[in-house]
């Protein structure tokens, strides 16, 4: 007896095979049937997270024929598992599993305010504990000369200071210069932003840019008003901080300065 294939559909009517493409990080695809286009930032079991050019992220199921790559229909699949990369801290350093915090050094890093301290802890906290570096905040830069004099920097107790709005001609730049001249064991560096909020990349918050706040207005309140947030700067900061997951969410001008301070206070005598 002659046997027939269970699929009697003519060859020319059968759907063409759709290529499978591994959802590797930074692969840019378009979601079929929508206008959303983005780069792969995460791939979990059955879903892929895409980020568009404005920093907006959305999660999509990895269904067959659900995506377009260079205009062609594809099916995204999970990338093959290779050798595990070393785990890294939020700052990008190689993590040391099970490492205990080092006894605090005599040296310190001072930042201007609580928000600065919380942001540094968020990204560099693991590194600072391993190095035994304590971060404290000043509640403003005006008292910095007195703080430095009381601290008494020395080769085995170096002091690093991170200052907001450290630009030529500013009050902060004059105070920083006077303090730096007092001892080679003090390093004062800063970023150009009015407030450390601005050191968080707008893309991390899903906004195009930080608003320009007119002179005479409280900057943080003005930002909340311009972005349509409740005028509660404490709640606004917690929202901003929650969107920072690693050094990639911060501007390079802040990253370099904090790394410089850590190197300074941990350098051999």
Automatic annotation (TrEMBL):
Database matches in InterPro entries: DUF3097_C (IPR021447), DUF3097_N (IPR053883)
Protein name: DUF3097 domain-containing protein
Species annotation: Streptomyces amritsarensis
Family matches, as Pfam families: DUF3097_C, DUF3097_N
Native organism taxonomy: Bacteria, Bacillati, Actinomycetota, Actinomycetes, Kitasatosporales
Residue span, DUF3097 domain: 20-79, 108-266
Domain of life: Bacteria
